[in-house]
């Protein structure tokens, strides 16, 4: 979906339509969760601090997050997807992959299916969606960003090679800012530049990721659409209005976080063995401390007990601006891998809401 959280807020509150809004905390320590396209024109974007966002856009309007509402609409959108295929892989509330190689409508055109789905989303929710259509998830993901908002782009099999060769390396999904800068230093600016590098060279420079870059620039990405994504971890974190230096105050915050995690675990009907404590200091450096217990836990008391042990594991180096707890090694990690079936061409859609 296009600027999903912000678009929902503008949908529900007509007074916000056409205005620069940011969904998220408006305090000095707050972080933007989503920004409307009107706000993006001023450089406001998700994960940006509220202070910088307001500096970039003085007339920015902050709106509190309403995740229950976002989940409600997200579910309605997924129901539309299932009218076309059961091979739906949700990535988050606002995006998903669909494999429409074989679809319930018997429509051989993935592009027409994408158009029809986008029109149905607009009709049933009042919101705009964009789509990317191609032979695999990697290319569909990149294509989905090309004609946003409210558009779609198809990369046909015979167009894949040229599409990737002329693409700026920064637009390759999975290539972040640091990796892009490293590639620039090595003279890699486009897909064509990347394609000239051997597998050995890329592995030497980028480790395990080297083989991934070698394959995707050639249009090779064998990851299937997985309709039952297994949750790997579950957690919560809090950024404080003022830095905390007292461990007593930290424990109070951790208790609140543990209570929230317990609620989420019960809702998801999962438990975990590995507890991780996340600490972000006032200088923005970050530290994680983890431990694994011999049995699955899901209660607030046990989560807090282990988080407390991790807190006292070593002395704090500075005051703290954020604390978080996550549980991994969940009891959902026991799925058996099924053998893959070969397909001549997998046509996939990647939707960004």
Tell me what the structure shows.
This protein folds into three domains: 4-65, 3-Layer(aba) Sandwich (MutS, DNA mismatch repair protein, domain I); 67-229, 2-Layer Sandwich (Alpha-Beta Plaits), CATH 3.30.70; 233-330, 2-Layer Sandwich (Dna Ligase, domain 1), CATH 3.30.1490. The chain is 36% helix and 22% strand. The protein has 13 helices and twelve strands. Strands 4-5-12-6-7 form a five-stranded mixed sheet. Strands 8-11-9-10 form a four-stranded antiparallel sheet, with helices on one face. A hairpin with a 4-residue loop joins strand 9 (272-281) and strand 10. Helix 4 (67-81) crosses helix 5 (110-125), helix 10 (199-206) crosses helix 11 and helix 12 (247-268) packs antiparallel against helix 13. It starts with a helix and ends with a strand. Its EC number is 2.7.7.7. Residues 1-176 form the UmuC domain. The active site is at 95.
Layout of secondary structure:
Elements lengths: L3 H9 L8 E4 L7 E4 L1 H4 L9 H7 L4 E3 L3 H15 L6 E5 L2 E5 L10 H16 L4 E5 L2 H7 L8 E3 L5 H6 L11 H9 L5 H5 L3 H8 L2 H8 L16 E12 L2 H22 L3 E10 L4 E12 L2 H12 L8 E11 L17 E5 L1
Parallel strand pairs: 1-3, 6-7
Antiparallel strand pairs: 1-2, 4-5, 5-12, 6-12, 8-11, 9-10, 9-11
Helix pairs in contact: 4-5, 10-11, 12-13
Pfam families: IMS (PF00817), IMS_C (PF11799), IMS_HHH (PF11798)
GO molecular function: damaged DNA binding; DNA-directed DNA polymerase activity; magnesium ion binding
EC number: 2.7.7.7
């Amino acid at each position: 979906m296009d600027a999903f959280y912000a678009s929902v807020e503008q949908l529900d509150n007509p007074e916000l339509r056409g205005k620069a809004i940011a969904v998220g905390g408006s305090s000095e320590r707050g972080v933007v969760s989503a920004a409307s396209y009107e706000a993006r024109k001023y450089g406001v974007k998700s994960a940006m601090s509220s202070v910088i966002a307001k500096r970039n856009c003085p007339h920015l309007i902050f709106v509190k997050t309403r995740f229950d509402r976002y989940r409600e609409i997200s579910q309605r959108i997924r129901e539309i997807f299932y009218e076309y295929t059961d091979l739906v892989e949700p990535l988050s509330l606002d995006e998903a992959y669909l494999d429409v190689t074989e679809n319930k409508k018997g429509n051989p055109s993935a592009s027409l299916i994408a158009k029809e789905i986008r029109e149905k989303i607009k009709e049933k929710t009042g919101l705009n969606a964009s789509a990317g259509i191609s032979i695999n998830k990697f290319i569909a993901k990149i294509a989905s960003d090309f004609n946003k908002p409210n558009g779609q782009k198809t990369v046909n099999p015979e167009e894949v090679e040229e599409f990737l060769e002329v693409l700026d390396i920064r637009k390759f999904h999975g290539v972040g800012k640091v990796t892009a800068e490293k590639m620039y230093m090595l003279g890699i600016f486009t897909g064509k530049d990347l394609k000239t590098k051997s597998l050995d060279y890329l592995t030497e420079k980028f480790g395990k990721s080297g083989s991934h870059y070698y394959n995707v620039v050639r249009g090779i990405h064998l990851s299937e659409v997985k309709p039952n994504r297994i949750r790997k971890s579950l957690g919560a974190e809090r950024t404080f209005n003022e830095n905390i230096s007292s461990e007593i105050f930290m424990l109070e915050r951790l208790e609140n976080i543990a209570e929230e995690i317990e609620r989420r675990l019960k809702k998801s009907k999962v438990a975990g063995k590995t507890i991780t404590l996340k600490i972000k200091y006032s200088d923005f450096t970050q530290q994680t401390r983890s431990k694994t217990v011999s049995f699955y836990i899901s209660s607030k008391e046990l989560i807090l007990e282990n988080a407390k042990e991790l807190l006292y594991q070593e002395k704090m180096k500075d005051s703290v601006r954020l604390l978080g707890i996550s549980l991994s090694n969940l009891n959902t990690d026991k799925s058996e891998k099924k053998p893959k079936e070969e397909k001549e061409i997998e046509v996939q859609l990647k939707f960004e809401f």
